Amino acid sequence: MKIRAAVLREMGIPAPYIQSKPLQITEVELDPPAFGELLIKIKVAGLCHSDLSVINGDRPRVIPIVLGHESSAEVVEVGPGVSDLKAGDHIVTVFVPSCGCCFPCMEGRPALCEPGAAANTSGTLLGGQRRLHINSNYLNHHTGVSCFAEYAVVSRRSCVKINADISHREAALFGCAILTGAGAVINRARIKAGSTAAIIGLGGVGLSALLAAVAAGARRIVAIDLSDEKLALAKQLGATHLVNPAHMKSDADLYDAAGGRVDFGFDMAGGVAAFGTAYKLTQRGGMTITSALPNPKAGFSLPLAQMVGEEREIRGSYLGSGVPAVDINHYIDLYKNGRLPVDRLFGETFSLDEINKGFDHLASGNGLRDAILF
User: N or C end of the chain: which has fewer CB within 10 A?
Assistant: First the structure.
């Protein structure tokens, strides 16, 4: 079938994107689903820094590529071998397909699926194929999803079935922002009631982490961002202390504004300086966790003696460090019960034709979770 999709042919094109247009809305051909695959109609696709980092060249991917990884969709057709889904079902896409058979998957760590990682790196679906092409020239898939398109073919292992009792606008958030941010707090940190936390970076993932910290009963939650508007929202969502680094002249100012160091420091911003702030605010015996994805060349110098003498922990968290097939529906239940108000994270909406404008808004740092509506 022929569909319209946003195709990236060159990385590193300078902003403003509304002028340079790195994403070209193009008619492409989409092959039907093969064994273990689905044809889905995209309803809402979130705009995320993981997509922006491909556009600006911070995280190179094989090109040409159809971007997009956070979405809610409706099943149109199931391929051979798919017996648990049918046309009309609602699904949320997941940006790491899990084979279920490799060692990490069998350990209950699907985010680390080895065939999934290989497929994402090579720009294919989990089975190693590409379903998008223009004439005989195949296009690459972004994390097995490529949801900046009217339709997509995905592996059954790249989606989670959900009930149709929430809107697609709400559901799309659970595929990345909520899954990643809340998962870092609930699964990786395992925050307990009475803990303290600092969250650096109040994008969709950072604000999701904040909501999860509130739901978990953290007694002091420090929200840190360069946007005073986002800090004001963080206060409404339950942050107890607000810090704008631009107003801090020294570490002493930082500690004072934060109310002291914390048990858990979360880097959700994706820069070395942000991770440094999270590490700096973590107290003796505490844990620093990052879910951000900076340029692969970015590094941080760790004081090893301090790590030993203060029994520090540093952890990465990917895909929420859990099992998306279970976690997504758990988080949706928390939302429906009023304990995870993710609808407060809604940003602006754009059409597919406005996608470059949408990424300009995302790059400005002023938005919440913006989305493409189909």
Answer: N
